[in-house]
């Protein structure tokens, strides 16, 4: 067994959390009436998430997971069960190539440039316009390690208080949410230097650094905004953005998105990831305004231009008409008369009888935390395919390593015939999630 685990995904077993939709951070269970909900559940709308804690992963592994509808909050990695959740969350991305400076965006940059007294420039590209902001003697963007500082925390506290009405911010909460990350990348002085001189380099051959970074916006030596970014091989992912409420008038959120698109372009990266998109969440509409935005299709992992996705007026679901499986609930539950569900039920019975793998039906999932995952979840490997693989006598997770935290010992997962039901379920669920090549802490 190799002693070098730096490139290994080190995680806890995945779990399934079912909570009332009042816990949903997007709708807070406040959608007006049941027809506004787009989950399959008719009456009880829930907040359903698959999550796990990650101790270590490479930025490349996270990139793959991001393009599989995962997001992270600190070291907590999660994806929503889009079939049962009150809100449907799909990864949204755009590219700097498709981004056009609209009148509104131009106005935003101009207004801020005027405020910080940046020298005026005309008729140029959006990244040049953003670069020009740093020609103000009073304003600068400064990259730092994603470390805690009192200054950052005070900004966070003011932002949460004023913008999110959240008055319980703590230093440890800030650190867990916006500083902690599973990448453990070291940022060298030379990398930091290159990052901080990005505007002088019109096109890097390769991004100067991959990993989590804080970008601080300073005006007259005061921290007025902070962007938390994951710089990944396929693009820049915006983790969070906070700003001083006193500067609300300057639309710093908009400015930061244009700025991050400029960075994506200068770093020679393809995509700018804006987190999740929820079509019926007003707060998310702005995300569709930056160039040609695309949504991740959970099943095929292809991206579909937002413009090609159409709304179904009757039940407010949106579907892609050319046979995509984006937001699949109507296909699962209506169009195919439940064939997919019936197939999964049949496979679940055999999996339990022959292999001791428990995949309970939906009504077995009460509110709380579960070791099992539901039978049908968009984006996970189907139970039918899992069963067929076992019937072909393929090994379930041949590269899975188990770390026993009680005795500090590592061992290779022995396969479905030699391990107990509990560990087999962990291996099974990790495989469904595409995470079987990992070290799992048991
Ligand atoms: Zn919701």
TrEMBL record:
GO molecular function annotations of the record: arginyl-tRNA--protein transferase activity
GO cellular component entries: cytoplasm
EC number(s) stated in the UniProt entry for this protein: 2.3.2.8
Organism name: Henningerozyma blattae (strain ATCC 34711 / CBS 6284 / DSM 70876 / NBRC 10599 / NRRL Y-10934 / UCD 77-7)
Entry keyword annotation includes Transferase: yes
Protein name per the record: arginyltransferase
Record-linked InterPro entries: Acyl_CoA_acyltransferase, N-end_Aminoacyl_Trfase, N-end_Aminoacyl_Trfase_C, N-end_Aminoacyl_Trfase_N
Enzyme class: transferase
Family per record: Belongs to the R-transferase family.
Residues of the N-end rule aminoacyl transferase C-terminal domain: 151-297
GO terms (BP aspect): apoptotic process; ubiquitin-dependent protein catabolic process via the N-end rule pathway
Coiled-coil intervals: none
Residue ranges annotated for the N-end aminoacyl transferase N-terminal domain, each copy included: 23-107
Keywords: Acyltransferase, Transferase
